[in-house]
Amino acid sequence: MSLRERALLTRLRARDEDAFTEVVSEYQNKVFNLVFRMIGNKEEAEDLAQEVFVTVFRHIDQFRGDAKFSTWLYRIAANHCKNRIKYLSRRHTSQNGLDDVPEHHMADGGAAPVQAHVDPPDAILEGRQLEKLMQEAIAGLDEEHRLLVLLRDVEELSYQEIAEITGLNEGTVKSRLHRARMQIKEFISKRTREGGEK
Q: Which CATH number fits the domain that encloses residue 193?
């Protein structure tokens, strides 16, 4: 842990609101993106991301520092997601998949990253179609597998960090991640074949 992070956490434990603002500013996009991709609903994700940071502020004294702060934060976000998914399913709320969310509601505004060159229109269209299929495939996974894919392939966390967040051992993380990736591959392959048959 860097000296800056240690100092920030010391201030946070002292209930310094400026420190809280710094933590939110530094991690809000990552937390929102994870929560949004888990829940699939922008409004729910915004509420849930706020709850995650409130929990961090209230329970910062429970952070022992034996893992990275971001790992602890992701664990809180993951637990909030699981609880919200259970709550929503009990309420029989229909959970819209990511494919039903308009692009302007996406965390990145649906915008592609800035590129040095412009791809041909057919390549752009193909890329967008593949991205949409990927989002559908990820949204269709059960919550445990979806979380693993998001933490590893979207957030690019190490297997060790994912194990700390989920409480699973690294071998289990790897095998479940492999299964999830195979499901995604099968989904995309099936949808691509269906598209070609039309």
A: 1.10.10.10
